[in-house]
Amino acid sequence: MSALLAVSGLSMRFGGLLAVDGVSFNVERDQVMAIIGPNGAGKTTVFNCISGFYRPTTGRVVLDGEPIDGLPSHQIARRGLVRTFQNVRLFKNMTVVENLLVSQHIQLVTNLWSGLVKTPGYRSAERHALERAAFWLDKVELLALANREAGNLAYGQQRRLEIARCMITNPKLLLLDEPAAGLNLQETRQLDRLIIELRQAHGVSVLLIEHDMSLVMGISDKVLVMEYGRPIAVGTPAEVRANPEVIRAYLGEA
Amino acid sequence: MRLYPLEALAAAVLTAVLTIPILGIDIVVDGPRITLTGEALPVLIAMAAVFVVRLFQEPLKTAIGWVRMDRLLPSPERMTAYRPMILTGLIVMALIWPFTVSRGAVDIATLALIYVMLGLGLNIVVGFAGLLDLGYVAFYAVGAYSYALLAQYFGLSFWTCLPVCVALAALTGCLLGFPVLRLRGDYLAIVTLGFGEIIRLLLNNLDQLTGGPDGIGNIPKPTLFGLEFARRPSQEGGVTFHDFFGLNYSGGDTVIFLFLLALALVLFTLFVINRLIRMPLGRAWEALREDEIACRSLGLNPTVIKLSAFTLGASFAGFAGAFFAARQGFINPESFTFIESAVVLAIVVLGGMGSQLGVILAAIALTVLPEVARQFAEYRMLIFGLVMVLMMIWRPQGLLPAARPRLKLPQ
Amino acid sequence: MADFLPQFLQQIINGLTLGSIYALIAIGYTMVYGIIGMINFAHGEIYMIGAYVGVIVITALAMLGLETIPLILLLTLAISILVTSCYGWTVERTAYRPLRGSPRLVPLISAIGMSIFLQNYVQLGQGARDVAMQPLITGGWRFGPEDGFQVYLSYMQVIIAVVTVVFMTLLTLFISRSRLGRACRACSQDREMANLLGIDTDRVIALTFVLGAALAAVAGVLVSLYYGLVNPFIGFIAGLKAFTAAVLGGIGSIPGAMLGGVVLGLTESFTSAYLSTEYKDVVAFSLLVLVLLFRPTGLLGKPDVEKV
Question: pLDDT-derived band of residue A103, with 50, 70 and 90 as boundaries?
């Protein structure tokens, strides 16, 4: 079976700066893959290119057999590729539940007339949306905070909500940009378990950018190491850890 | 208590520099020549006021801290609980009240209702979707002029024209919105402002079609199931309301009829908007206002969502515009200047962006207060401007911000 | 046909004159936008106040019996610059600074409120009617054949051009050579970084507003001399048009504001002459809309990549 995500020859140029240079990798189905590298290596830029927030200068991105490079971000999201951001981007003035209802927008009845007269179809769609929201809130342990404004949650809770928000769209591929940033040890372990569960129980592949090595080495099936916009190593965590290029990139020349 | 004499002095001097040319010196037109006279009093008053405020800024700040708006005004949660009660109360009052007061009062109230419609409509665009539309008056004008023209050239009645006016306003909203919606907030504001001005200038200059600065007159009033509110029927075979019910004609009845009609239109507007904001579309508007990038990452198409807010907001302006034309009987471009857009914006800002009840009360306040305080009429816009600035500094969420809905989750 | 070239030349002269005015006002918009990313809606009103002060000072000097024109001009410019700079500073301090860091819509609405406030404040203080002033500088040169269309270049137009060039040069020198100017440029590129490096960003922002106001004052004085007419409403339209010029040239770019001003002035002049005077405003606003739709970065601006 073909890879879920196939990236080939991806590069991104900003004026004189080549932020990403010739990145190619595949993410298989039910796989957790991590992209690591020193700051400024271009990891988030790769994310932005894949998810349609930047238009890559060159390269091909194929999701589940369909090319998606050049598509606008919302269309890529509809095709099953959703992402989180380095800074938490919740709808802060809306409640936790509302955040989860909005993300189901695509799956809901948005027909004006149905909503105005509240047809049975509309009502059941709304009820179903609330049920799904409840399901995911329970899964990320935020059910008790359902009606709290998202901006009033603790940081770790916000991060979990972000993931729940992504998952409720039934994605094929989940892109997490530094999901463990700012989390304490316990929260990181929680995240660990959550990602594994997402992969196993919900059939979603995860591509993450991370600096937290325990997370990377612990749960990733595959790791891509980038430096200065270029890939310098790819393989299993064990392979990558032993790679001299990687050691040099992180620790400098001996 | 620490006083700030030096700062106060500096502030007073600055005030002098600012106010002398504008308030202190009067330009006297003396035939073809102009001369100047001086008037020290306003300047001295301003200087004194600024001096005192700056001098005592510490105690004043503490005092203001005591009078916190949060304590004065009911919290959003309380408002949500009382809201149905308040609304029902208002509606009942509104049905009984016009029969008990003077004709002038009812007339003003009708005007207030028009602004309520406009405020609720702009609230969709600015309050919910977060798009700063400064040219809202353009859709108002489209509604008004389309009714006037349809009545003039085709002799169509108000009720026939109403859906057409709304559709035309919506279409204008779509056409204006589509190219403009990928612009960032500030640019969007200026471009919509530009559009508003373009529409006004076109209305002024296309004399043949719109009557130019003279406008269009003889716009027929709405009828009640074909019964006209006039002394005599305008056409052969027409029946007036009073003839039908065997009453004596009274101009006051027309005014009350228009008020009740406006009330019906407002209730319809409220109903529709209330539904809209609880629908996926309404949630999408708010999400868009909160974080457009997050929206895109979840598959929401920002352009379509913005366009829907713009178009629906425009429809309500068209709604109000058609009624405005019918009530006035006469319209000209002067009613559709930028100031109107600014007033409606002030209503939304004052009431609380996204708060229906707040907007309603603000519209009523901003319409009724200038009438009640007639002697301050020339200060009206000055106070508007000041209030807008002060609201942004002290309470940007508005006087009565709405609370988030509490949703019950199935267990 | 023989008249076409001289008429064309006349429109160019008129257009450049108008363009200079727009350019002077546009710089205020572009500098403020470049440094805090906000449209100063009240800037048009600052210009209007500058015009009023110009009228007042000229009249006052005439009443005092002063007759030497260069001195009158200098004093008027100086006093108007002083007063409007104070207005510019005060507006920033009271209506914008407390809102720095608020969501985008908030300072924008405050700016609109300030604009309405200032316009009505002047209206109350000076009346809503037009104030017409006796032209101070009259006369000019005529070129062309006796019997055909004569191109008229008034002394006032030359003065406008010269004054504009002088102030633009002063501004450019200040921005590129002086320490404060460098601080301005640093702040407009990366305010946080500039702050971390020890630049007092509050002062720099205040300075930006003051500089913009000063140039608006110059424009106001020149306009009051050129047209001899002021009223409290000239700020609104001029402001919109100057903003158009700033966007046309590329918002955030000072040379862009100058270029945009000239282009807009010429466009308006030609529209007025060859199409109709009534539609010149429509054309100006349409130009704004078109630029924002098709080339939002303007002629000299750089494309803006949104950081995600």
Answer: very high
Distance, in Å, from the CA atom of B117 to the CA atom of B130, rounded to the nearest integer, reads 18
Of C38, C52, C95, the CB nearest to B21: C52
Contact B128/C at CB under 8 A: no
Go through B182-195 and write b for each residue having 16 or more CB atoms within 10 A of its CB, e for each that does not: ebebbbbbbbbbbb
Last residue of a domain, one of B44, B67, B90: B67
B193 and B227 part of one domain: yes
Cβ neighbours of C131 in B, within 8 Å: 27, 29, 34
Chain B, nearest residue to A51 by Cα: B297
Q: For residue C102, what pLDDT band results from cuts at 50, 70 and 90?
A: confident
User: Is the pLDDT assigned to residue C145 strictly greater than 80?
Assistant: no
Average pLDDT estimate for C80-87: 95
Structural domain range at position B349? 78-394
* CA-atom Rg of chain B in angstroms: 24
Residue B407 belongs to a domain: no
**Within-domain flag for B403:** no
- Asked whether residue B38 falls in the same domain as residue B96, the answer is no
Query: What is the rounded CA–CA span in Å between residue A101 and residue A208?
Result: 25
Torsion angle of the four alpha carbons C65, C68, C70, C71, in this order, in degrees rounded to the nearest 10: -50
What's the number of domains chain B is made of? Answer: 2
Under DSSP, the state recorded for B85 is: H
pLDDT tens-digit profile of A8-29? 999 999 888 888 999 999 999 9
Question: Which residues on C lie below 8 Å from B198 (Cβ)?
Answer: 282, 285-286, 289
Rounded to 5°, the CA angle C57-C62-C68 comes to 100
How distant is the Cα of A246 from the closest Cα of chain B, in angstroms? 32
Residues A171, C89: Cα–Cα separation, whole Å: 52
Q: Looking at the domain assignment, is residue B291 inside a domain?
A: yes
Contact criterion met (CB < 8 Å) for C308 and A14: no
Chains meeting B at 3+ CB pairs closer than 8 A? A, C
Chain C partners of B339 at a C-beta cutoff of 8 Å? 116
Q: Quote the ipTM score.
A: 0.90
- pLDDT at residue C305 tops 60: no
Q: Characterize the bridge pairing of strands A222-227 and A205-209.
A: unpaired
* Per-residue pLDDT tens digits for B72-116: 677 777 777 777 888 788 888 888 887 788 888 888 899 999 999
DSSP lists the bridge partners of residue C73 as none
| Tokens standing for residue C208 | 């930006």
Query: Nearest-CA neighbor of A82 among A196, A184, A204?
Result: A204
The verdict on B161 and B301 lying in the same domain is yes
Domains of chain A from N-terminus onward: 1-80+172-254 (3.40.50.300), 88-170 (3.40.50.300)
Same domain as B174, residue B306: yes
What integer pLDDT is reported at residue B69 of this predicted model?
61
Per the rule left: phi > 0, alpha: psi between -120 and 50, beta: everything else, A90 is beta
My answer on whether B192 and B296 are in the same domain is: yes
For residues B140 and B224, state if they share a domain. yes
Residue B389 touches partner C, C-beta closer than 8 Å: yes
Query: Does residue B401 lie in a domain region?
Result: no
Cβ contact C99–B387 (<8 Å): no
| A201-226 tens-digit pLDDT | 888 999 999 888 878 888 899 999 99
Q: Does B65 touch chain A (CB under 8 A)?
A: no
Pick the closest to residue B313 from B119, B144, B51 (CA basis).
Answer: B119
Q: Tell me how far apart the alpha carbons of residues C119 and C128 are, in angstroms, rounded to a whole number.
A: 10
- Asked if the model's pLDDT at residue B323 lies above 80, the reply is yes
User: How much is the average pLDDT of B49-56?
Assistant: 87
CA-based nearest distance A42→chain C, Å: 13
Retrieve residue C71's tokens.
């001195």
Mutation choice for B interface testing from C121, C123, C133, C276 by most B CBs within 10 A: C121
